[in-house]
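re the bet — no i am not wrong, look at it urself. input seq straight from the record:
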Amino acid sequence: MSNPFAGHTVETARRALTARFKSGPIESAELDARILVGAALGLDLTGLIAAAHRPLTSDESLRLENSANQRLSGEPIARLVGYREFWGLPLKLSPATLVPRPDTETVVELSLEMLHAAPHPDRPLRIADLGTGSGAILLALLSELPDAYGMGTDISVAALRTASENAAALGLAERAGFIACDYARALSGPFDLVVSNPPYIRSAEIAGLAVEVRDHDPLLALDGGSDGLDAYRGTAGAARRAGGRGRTGPKRTYPAIDAGNEVNARSARQNRPGGHPAGGRGPQIALIKPEKTTWNIARERLRSVHNIGPGLLAP
């Protein structure tokens, strides 16, 4: 089998791949080419510069050609290298998880703003992430809140295994737990913050999504039902139940704060193909900062779900 990269040096292979991607066309041709050459050779940017004039080995050129063909067929660069950076954190991906998008970082930003603007309890914060996927939002928040603890839920056990591995790799496993259930079914709060980035694409619009999304992101994480709002109906009530909205703690009442409703309503009205997963911004924020009292997992519900990761969190 002929190999277009046979006889190339590291630098000429990168340039040749960039030219192929531009004619693809791939918008991020130069960046994607550099990432794939680095992945094929096991080199970071500094290593690529240092090895610029080194000829590729036969195995390296074959690996690069295989990756190039996969990228040109529509496979996302993050899928090819197996990870994606989110909030400055390298996150492992799996077929069961979405590729985290930069615009989802707005959920992290708004969450931190809400927490900083509200009174703090005299104990560590408790965070729930409903539909956690790779754990991106929860782990980003825990990286910014060193005294906080978090629980991520998902109906996909495979996704939760990926999230648990990410927590361990980032040194956050002691403060993160993961449990398989439908949104907050296995949780009973209250939590100090409930976050979610649920599916919102209308079922009929899935076929029209970009190939990188339609053919490579898990359908469960994309399909929001006939009107795109099935998951929002599920998360709204679940988040309030997990949050203990309106409860009064001993000696002090912490008013519930819902910063996501108006954002959600506005974004949902604008729901369309090519939204968040295809590169735009779609309805993704479902944030409730509820009353703070106790931290409980509904023990009777745990009999029918899987506990994933380092373990359930306790007071």
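see?? The CA atoms of residues 268 and 283 lie 5 Å apart. told u. also The chain is about 35% helix and 10% strand. so pay up
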